[in-house]
Amino acid sequence: xxxxxxxxxxxxxxxxxxxxxxxxxxxxxxxxxxxxxxxxxxxxxxxxxxxxxxxxxxxxxxxxxxxxxxxxxxxxxxxxxxxxxxxxxxxxxxxxxxxxxxxxxxxxxxxxxxxxxxxxxxxxxxxxxxxxxxxxxxxxxxxxxxxxxxxxxxxxxxxxxxxxxxxxxxxxxxxxxxxxxxxxxxxxxxxxxxxxxxxxxxxxxxxxxxxxxxxxxxxxxxxxxxxxxxxxxxxxxxxxxxxxxxxxxxxxxxxxxxxxxxxxxxxxxxxxxxxxxxxxxxxxxxxxxxxxxxxxxxxxxxxxxxxxxxxxxxxxxxxxxxxxxxxxxxxxxxxxxxxxxxxxxxxxxxxxxxxxxxxxxxxxxxxxxxxxxxxxxxxxxxxxxxxxxxxxxxxxxxxxxxxxxxxxxxxxxxxxxxxxxxxxxxxxxxxxxxxxxxxxxxxxxxxxxxxxxxxxxxxxxxxxxxxxxxxxxxxxxxxx
Length: 480
What we know:
The protein is of the alpha+beta class. The protein folds into 4 domains: 12-107, Alpha-Beta Complex (DNA Primase, Chain A); 124-240, DNA primase, catalytic core, N-terminal domain (DNA primase DNAg catalytic core, N-terminal domain, Alpha-Beta Complex), CATH 3.90.980.10; 281-349; 371-475, no CATH class. The protein is 38% helix and 21% strand. It has helices spanning 3-19, 22-29, 74-82, 86-94, 124-141, 145-153, 158-164, 174-180, 187-193, 251-257, 269-277, 312-325, 343-349, 353-388, 392-411, and strands at 32-35, 38-41, 53-56, 61-64, 71-72, 106-107, 167-169, 196-198, 204-206, 211-218, 221-229, 238-240, 262-266, 282-284, 303-307, 329-331, 415-420, 426-427, 430-431, 435-439, 441-446, 449-453, 461-465, 471-475. It has a 6-stranded mixed β-sheet with strand order 5-4-3-2-1-6, with helices on one face. The protein has a 4-stranded antiparallel β-sheet with strand order 7-10-11-12. Strand 15, helix 12 (312-325) and strand 16 form a beta-alpha-beta unit. Helix 2 (22-29) packs parallel to helix 3, helix 3 crosses helix 4 (86-94) and helix 11 (269-277) crosses helix 13.
């Protein structure tokens, strides 16, 4: 590129950047609320229910502190969101209408969190009302042939639609159908559950309008509803009820089956439904990460298979969940030879997807057995530190035991990876990624600090605090 051409290119780029402030473009993809001098909202690049997407207007940049663990400028956001390269993103923004950024709707910092707080107590009346709404949505889907074809393309066939009682909210029929069936419409109850909300003009509107409805069922009773987007204008793929505490989706169904040996944990509802169609006990996080108040619910299972998306963000989320659950966690591996970034896409690409998935599960079981000695001693240390941390002598014995296990695996030619959220790099007081320590040779242990090498030749020394290790893997080799 000639010097003059390069100058024109830079001038064009900066002109487009100036005409498209980051807060303007970000606000098209997600609702932003003020957080001091920054803006914050749900990340438009992945599913989540806790805002992790932060916009820094003064710097013209953004960062996702959740599953993405990435950020950039306005061009990077458009590239990721629209699936464009840089030149295409530049043209995309250049052809956009320039918006007066002072008129961009920014949600106020909520003092009254009525739209985000759940009811303190869910009564039988609430669940009955939720179940009636589920039946309304279920009946409406039968007339939506486009959506039925879409579900069939996602390998959610007619039998699965009936089995899981999937529905559709057209946005107009809820109250009318209640009246038609002779059911009493109670506006206050519908608002408490989050089925309806008032718009800016005070008019009552259905919350799930123009969305597929996936109910979380306990028998025939609906205990929660999830709405899935049906067109591009709906920027958030999945939304859930605000009035009902977010459950571990599918847990009631698994518990009814009496299954306690194993459970599969997915990110999205379609992945969970796919596994249920394969007669596997599955639950869904309705997001990438396991909420703290749901940890206990998984303690009843001997083995928890983590089945996140097979991309980098999904693998990071899997490590976080594994760190939370400890020894019972098993991460289902990805196979680069297979097409599809998640379980449902796997089903779309292969007729024998269930068998292929079982092969991945078998690999996960082999990996779990290999990890078991290290995982068990890590779990013993964590239990000890949580209950009797003042016994330093026992702590030191357990630390040395971990080192012995690592040394034995290294002697077998294996590589050990210790994972912990405490290993994450810090930036502006925020953790930027789940940390890992790749150990191929051990030097010394001082108190709880392990000195090790990440190279087989022992040329690169590093240190980590073994006492904060949460998850351990024993691998033949570590992918770059």
